[in-house]
Amino acid sequence: TGVQTCALPIWKRKSFERQEGIKSGRLVVIAAEGKDTENIYFEEMKASMHASGVHVEVLRRGTNESSPEEVYRQIQGFVSEYDIDEDDQLWAVVDRDKWTEKMLSEVAMKCSQNRFFNFCVSNPCFELWLILHLEDVEHYSEEDWNGLSENKKTSRNGDTWTKKRLRSLMGSYRESKYEAATLFPNIEDAIARASKLDIKPDDRWPQTVGTRVYLLVNSILAKDQQ
User: What global pTM score does this model have?
Assistant: First the structure.
């Protein structure tokens, strides 16, 4: 990542009000492509799983637009309003599955121009991160691996392969309603599995099945400082 090249606004931005007791702690700001799934997970982390020196802020979309560019605009909106401290991090969380290489490249480039910004892609989608709490996809049969990679709709109601898999693993799963806290006892397994899948960490996003959400979670848990 590089240092932001654009000039800072001339007006005074306000300080973000963090949780009492961690005023000088790290602020982790998350803007996600998904309307519900990612927010449910990270709001639950904010409530029960973050490190003592970390404040998590999950941004909510004001529109139905969910492109990587819109996610980036959300983060930019936060930066234009609030001061960012040295240790703060801003994360754009997007899926690989339906976006073109060009769309992802443009946002990846913009993020790389600001050292506070992080481009966090899951390939094919965020549900992979949830699955990794419950099973190691590297043990999948060829048929299941292909199903995960392609993540096609498997039913008339629009369920993709990953959603169907999560419903099978969790007993109940909907994008807008699931029990994220039940996954947290296995969060270390998910981190280890995602890290192992990330065979080319210098790539801007995983080119094959993989997710960079483990890096964001490590930040929330302050594991990247250990």
Answer: 0.89
